[in-house]
Amino acid sequence: MGLKSAAMRAASVFTHPAKPHDFLALINPLSSARQLRGVVTAVRPETTASTTISFRPGDGWSPHDAGQWARIGVEIDGVRQWRSYSLSAPAGGDPQITVTACGKVSAHLAHETRVGDIFFLAPPQGEFLLPTGPRPLLMLTGGSGITPVMSMVRTLLPKRADADVVLIHSARDRESALFGAELAQLATQHEGFHVVHRYTSEDGRIDFSTTTDLDALCPDWRSRKTYVCGPAAMLDDAEKLWLDANLPGSLTVERFETTKLTEVAGEGGTVIFEKSDREVEADASTPLLEVGEEAGVLMPSGCRMGICRTCLTPLLSGRVRDLRTGEVIDTEGDLIQTCISAAAGTCHLDI
Fold it and tell me: Which residues form the 2Fe-2S ferredoxin-type domain (predicted)?
């Protein structure tokens, strides 16, 4: 038994029926045996709509690798809301996220976060990682998709004088482009780091239907290991181009959202959260995860796009629809992914 564990067991004699951690939390809000937490240490505006938030995690946090993401929980109107955010800080140090005000939780974080606020955390995860050996790299990013790549750049450049990286970043305009000043400084400091800004309001989007745009922006793109992160349409088009070029193995993609049906047939229904004793009317296109969160139900979640399966919840009865395929699921006891499933009639969930 470790010294710390022995001390906690001894202290529990005096704190019973409460646990020692419950008293420690009164002194140190990061001390919790039940939930990993972090305290906000800095808040820095990036653009009018985006903010970088640095935080110091408590015990239990695993140092992140460049390109990974983590689940962040925050209390809004008395309800704990969870979202997943890429970590934009270099690997190994105290983490930070760069949030653009889009949606209820992101807008709250971007505009309302203050130094000293407490976040609820889950350990870093994700496979959008730098290669293990030296290799010429191409980074294609759009909008907030630059955040995990920024972690990679901040990690790689100080460690490798021979780094050969081309970053092509698309933003709506100069005012909304993230990290512009820092990227310009890094390009000046590192001979092998080249940055190309694409402002879609002036230059239009990169056309991935042919190789013409890419040939002009990065002539040797075929020989580079490529990372792409941004809007779903950009990722789909890039995947097709690399597949057509017979280079799918040299492309690594990070998605912030899954592709869902643009039109959902049928109607929604009543969603009954049995354990939480909540009953909510829902439409046919809103994910059950969001329906539950808006109703104050503590919903398990992770990636929020149907990949990690953290949100799996038993369907006790009723009908739900997979928002990616339109398939209706009505088998009692099936585990459904609430982040990509919506009501297709009355449904009872075991949560």
Answer: 269-351
